[in-house]
Design goal:
The protein has five helices and nine strands, in the order H-E-E-E-E-E-H-H-H-E-E-E-E-H. The protein is an alpha+beta fold. One of its GO terms (cellular component) is RAVE complex.
Length: 258
């Protein structure tokens, strides 16, 4: 009866790891990429802009109201643009005065964040499509490179919806979107629409002269947007899948197999 030495056990383990590594490289990486592509295509279908096989621009209506009716806004969102809005807000310097303005379909207000996120998503799907389904991966570095590109694109897409770009009051007042407002606002006021997580937010900024010092006051109103929530969940599911594969490849690298 032969007893296995420590060396035998180690070499058996190495052999098993090698077999598992080859299986992962040959089959599992491809099946994960395929599954990831399905998740990302599902994500693309939720976007309200033409992306792959979704039907394109959807129209939805939203009501945004701030506390004590400081700010009220009815918005029609078509694709990545606000095609209609009725906005009214109370002026900070006199609570009885109300400022009103509108957006019409002649000059829509573009939500750049939607297009940015869609572009990054498209980039991620392109990275997967660039890998031939019969391609034989030769090293864990090769797989890690693709996962790195995918994680980068998905994180950028998710971030563009979660964190709106910071803008100065001057940028806001001079933004191209401000020209969508009819009538135009006085020079000491600005409006901004942006997405943050699953919400559409309107912010009104008013410059006030308080005892000789210019001060900016902001009022916000928000509402939930269903498809944004779905998109963010799918981005997160995709990122988790990438991270799991990345951890697995790094574990093989630790075993110095590639």
């Amino acid at each position: 009866m032969s007893t296995m030495t420590m060396e035998d056990i180690e070499s058996e383990e190495v052999k098993n790891l090698q077999i598992e590594f080859e299986w992962v490289m040959r089959d599992e990486v491809h099946s994960i990429l395929k599954k990831l592509r399905e998740i990302l295509m599902e994500c693309a279908r939720r976007f309200p802009v033409p992306l792959y096989d979704n039907e394109g621009k959807r129209t939805e209506k939203f009501h945004l109201v701030a506390a004590q009716d400081q700010l009220k806004c009815t918005v029609t969102l078509t694709g990545d643009s606000i095609t209609q809005a009725d906005i009214s807000f109370k002026l900070k310097r006199s609570s009885s005065q109300v400022q009103r303005t509108t957006i019409t379909s002649d000059a829509p207000w573009k939500l750049q964040q939607v297009q940015d996120a869609a572009n990054h998503l498209q980039q991620a799907i392109n990275h997967i499509d660039n890998v031939d389904e019969n391609y034989k991966f030769r090293s864990s570095e090769e797989v890690l490179q693709i996962i790195g590109e995918l994680i980068g694109a998905l994180q950028r897409g998710r971030t563009s919806l979660i964190i709106p770009k910071k803008k100065s009051i001057e940028d806001l007042m001079n933004s191209r979107n401000m020209k969508s407002l009819a009538p135009n606002l006085p020079e000491d006021q600005a409006i901004s629409f942006f997405l943050q997580c699953h919400k559409l937010i309107i912010a009104v900024y008013q410059l006030l002269n308080v005892q000789g010092t210019m001060k900016m006051e902001a009022t916000q109103a928000e509402c939930s947007v269903g498809w944004l929530n779905d998109v963010l969940v799918l981005f997160t599911v995709g990122l988790t899948l990438c991270q799991q594969l990345k951890d697995k490849m790094n574990a093989f690298k630790m075993d110095t197999l590639s």
